[in-house]
Amino acid sequence: MSHLSQTRALWAALAGVPLLFAAIAALQMKIDAGTRAYMEENEELLLRSGSAVRKMSLGYDSLLADLYWTRAVQYYGSRAGFANAKFGLLWPLLDIATTLDPKLIVAYRFGAIFLSEPSPAGAGRPDLAVELVKRGIAENPDDWNLNGDLGFLYYWWMRDYPNSAAAYLQGSKNPKAPSWLKIMAARVAEKGGSLDTSRMIWSEIYQSTQDKKIRDRAMEMLRGLKAREDETELDELAQAYKIRFGHFPDSTKAMLDAGMLRAIPVDPAGYPYVFGPDGKSSLVPISPVVIPPDLKAPPEVSK
Amino acid sequence: MNATVGPVAINTFREAVRDRVLYNLVLFALLMIGAAILVGEISIGIERLVIINLGLSAISIFGLVMAIFIGVGLVYKEIEKRTLYSLLAKPIRRWQFLVGKFAGLLLTLGVNTIFMTLGLAAALVYVGGHFVRSDASILVAIYFILLEFALVTALAMFFSCFSSPMLSTLFTLGIYITGVFADDIHGIGEFTKNPAVLAITRTLYYLVPNFHNFNAIDTVAHGGAIPFSLVWQNTLYAALYIALLLVAGSAVFSGRNLK
Amino acid sequence: MSTPAIEILGLTKDFPVGFWRKRMRRSLDNLTFQVEEGEVFGFLGPNGAGKTTTMKLLMGLIFPTSGTARVRGRSIDDVQMHREIGYLPEQPYFYDYLTARELLDYYARFSNYSKAERRERVGRFLERVGLAAAGNVQLRKFSKGMLQRAGIAQAILHDPAVVILDEPMSGLDPVGRREVRDIILDLKKQGRTVFFSTHILSDAEMLCDRVAVLAGGKLQGVGAPGEIVSMKAHAMEILFEAREGRALPAALAKNATRIGGRCRVEVPEEALYGALEQLRNCEARILSVSPVHPTLEDYFFRLVGSPATSRGLEEISR
Q1: How many domains are contained in chain A?
Q2: Which of C223, C257, C284 is the last residue of a domain?
Q3: DSSP assignment of C103-157, as one string?
Q4: Cα–Cα distance, C53 to C64 (Å, whole number)
Q5: Has residue C229 been placed in a domain?
Q6: Which of these, B128, B154, B104, lies nearest to B52 by C-alpha position?
Q7: Which CATH number does the domain housing residue C169 bear?
Q8: Residue A70 has pLDDT above 90, yes or no
Q9: What chain B residue is nearest to C114 in terms of C-alpha separation?
Q10: What is d(CA A132, CA A69) in angstroms, rounded to the nearest whole number?
């Protein structure tokens, strides 16, 4: 007969604690799954104004900037890849991060790419990207990379070639800037948009950053560009084929048999191209290579 | 059971009222009046948004402060002042006492929140002239806030079953803050890609009460609707966690020698 | 004989001492005794003897290291046992935001009375403890004595068969003490069992059918107050004036106390004549010889080894 007879029952109940925890965790997973979709519209950010946050940061600006930068990256990462992903908070997050710490180059460069990309890869707001990068240049006149990014934004998304050329030119004046900036300035000014110029921009973006997400994106673009170039070439060959045989080729193999190709051409992922009845080549549907919509109609190729 | 839990709950409520806890309502009313008058002057176009954000945030903060600071004293004060001795001499079990105290504080918070909700409604009418359909979801947000109060109260009371109010406050605040940032903790784990860190953050994520679940202020401020599934899931989540804390608290408290 | 009202069987309680809770201090050691139905039972002992510990063990506020107890045949683990028991804690303190009436009404709710019944009962018991006029005053305005009365009222409110009172007289003025005595006698008249602790021995002598004496966590004796007293050998008290310059015999000097110019010595009855002879030999003037009527107080002091009676004659011979 112990003093704890009633307590013993409660301790027995305590044995159920792990069970309760399991139930709680399971429920949390369910809640998480349910909220993922509605989270898109339900984006909470207590303070959207960078200057307000700065005032309230009590001197810990740069630490807070790092927090906001981390949040921005997590925010992007948690949504990227979902269909119809919107990135409504990306701008305020980056805005706050760079207001708190104007020297946060990574944040400007991240914004240049992912604010401008359309959904589902980015926020689809090149105008905000331009604003962010311009602010970055004003705060960090020494960093030629940002001039390159601005040139890219004007070139790629705004198709504003005079401004793009001006941005590249300004960057090239930096003694530390590599020579390609000057070349870009000249090319954009002379030819406007072309596949060559586009490829050059993306490969420079690829090489000038450590950010894995940006590099992945640049690599994807380069592969898309390569595919686009291949398609253009194949379409021209198909026209030649039709002149010779009176009809379009039904496959690249037919062209190979006709001696017009030395090997079966494959896209950057290793899949052969296919032909439609109209003689237009395209990627096989299962190929992971993506030609982004804007590349399908590349910025006006001026011959 | 009601014969023992009910009186304790009502007495706890009465204590809060007599200790002038509800005076915080005056502060809330002043805040709402000030906001309603000022917001018309300075934030044209988003008056409703500001009032809803401010009102719900204030309801949440006022209640949380009450839940924590009264919660940690619920059990401790009765032991310290030895008022518990004559009570436990009556035919009441210790867990019934705990549940009664919990219910009493919850009742206090509920009444407090009802008054605040009325204040918020009045401020909304003042700036908007009338209610709109989506205002109904504000009530859901307030319900979530109440669930949050219940969870925080249970946490505070659980700690006060075996530690001083000072430590209990620290523990409760610590867990509350961890719970609010549960998502970010989870995110950090995913971000590092380090399996050990990931294991820790993931465990933590499912272990601490996830207060993030209950935050619907921003959604309703922008006129968004809350899916019904979230309502029952949150309710169940809070109920499970509270049951867990009450059982654990009762087990600890029932075996405790009252000095 | 029917079941005892309270049955204490080998109750032992160790408390941890020290910050790391390693050492244990025994505050109650194998306590065993019974309180019979209908008696007024006094629980005596100096502060720290373990009286409050025993009562808290009975009420389930603390838990025994070993041993157990039963109240009217029911284990102290059984919460239903509390329906038949009333308890006044030592130096009681109550919710000070309540009035006395509200406090009693609150406690009455645990006994399943109807609303009307509660109101009647609360009024009656306020009257009984002399708080009728202060019923609607908040307890924070109560004096210590008034709190004690409110405490007694809540202990007997539900007509318990067994009433446990921890130091019910402490903090009361003489009038208040008499009122509490009357309440206890009243309860006895109603056939209830009263188990109360006190260190005011006259109260126990006046009220108790039986007493138990506790010291240092150990039971020293149980019995009627008269029995306990009679355990002690009868003694005679000699009052005398020592003559200047004459030393007293060592045996007497050791036990004598000086009061003013006189000396007082207590000797066992059988040694009386020998002692008188010795005093006569040293030309002391005998003032009086009288039998000592021992009280519980003496018994008590002897147990505790109070210096009051063991002080030697060193002062005198100096």
Answers
A1: 2
A2: C223
A3: HHHHHHGGGT--HHHHHHHHHHHHHHTT-GGGTTSBGGG--HHHHHHHHHHHHHT
A4: 10
A5: no
A6: B128
A7: 3.40.50.300
A8: no
A9: B3
A10: 14
CA dihedral C29, C32, C33, C34 (to 10 degrees): 120
Which one of B218, B233, B251 has the shortest CB-CB distance to A42?
B218
Percent of chain A with pLDDT over 90: 3
What distances in angstroms separate CA B131 from CA A68, A87, A302, B125, B128, one per listed residue?
Answer: 36, 31, 58, 7, 7
Hey, what are B42's tokens? Answer: 């300075």
Instruction: Judge whether C89 lies within some domain.
Output: yes
User: Does A5 score more than 60 pLDDT?
Assistant: no
Within a domain: A172? no
Residues of B in contact with C141 (CB under 8 A): none
Number of structural domains, chain C? 2
Q: Do A1 and C64 touch (CB under 8 A)?
A: no
CA distance B16 to B37: 31
Average pLDDT, chain A: 78
Contacts of A209 by beta carbon, 8 Å cutoff, 6+ apart? A109, A145, A215, A218
Structure tokens at B63: 């209640």
Domain region containing A115: 44-140
* pTM (two decimals): 0.67
User: What span, in angstroms and rounded, lies between the C-alpha atoms of A48 and A41?
Assistant: 16
Distance CA C50, CA C68 (A): 16
**Could you give the CA distance from residue B247 to residue C171 in angstroms, rounded to a whole number?**
40
Find which of A28, A29, A86 to mutate to test the B interface (most B CBs within 10 Å of its CB).
A28
Is residue C306 over pLDDT 50?
A: no
Q: Kindly list the domain boundaries of chain B, sorted by start residue.
A: 2-254
What are the structure tokens assigned to A59, written together? Answer: 């001197």
Residue that is written with structure tokens 């005998």 in the block: C286
Contact between chains at A3 and C79 (C-beta distance less than 8 A): no
Domain boundary (A140, A166, A186) is at A140
- Which among A105, A140, A175 is the end of a domain? A140
- Chain A residue whose CA is closest to C64: A3
Considering the domain architecture, whether residues C204 and C250 belong to the same structural domain is answered as no
Q: How far does the CA of residue A18 sit from the closest CA of chain C (Å)? A: 28
CA–CA dist C3, C70 (Å, integer): 10
Which range has the top average pLDDT, A27-36, B142-151, B211-220, C293-302?
Answer: B142-151
| Strand partners of residue C7 | C34, C70
C27 and C61 co-located in one domain: yes
Q: Residue A17: its chain B contacts at CB < 8 A?
A: 244, 247-248
CB nearest to A10's CB, from B187, B188, B254: B254
Assign A52 a pLDDT band (cuts: 50, 70, 90).
low
Q: C77 and C157: one domain?
A: yes
User: Do residues C51 and C167 both lie within one domain?
Assistant: yes
Minimal CA separation from A56 to chain C, in Å: 41
Interface of B with A (CB under 8 A): 93-95, 184, 187-188, 190-191, 205-207, 210, 213, 215-219, 222, 224, 226-227, 229-230, 233-234, 236-237, 240-241, 243-244, 247-248, 250-251, 254-255
C15 neighbourhood in chain B, CB within 8 Å: 257
Domain containing C141: what range?
6-223
By C-alpha distance, which of B87, B75, A8, B34 is closest to C154? B87
For residues B212 and C137, what is the distance between their CA atoms, to the nearest angstrom?
47
**CATH at C302:** 3.30.70
- What residues of B are in contact with residue C106 (Cβ under 8 Å)? 7, 11
Asked whether residue C260 is domain-assigned, the answer is yes
Which range, of B3-12, B66-75, B103-112, C166-175, averages the lowest pLDDT? C166-175
Quote ipTM for the complex: 0.86
Please spell the DSSP secondary structure of C220-272, one letter per residue.
EEEE-HHHHHHTSPPEEEEEEEPPTTPPPPHHHHHH-EEETTEEEEEEEGGGH
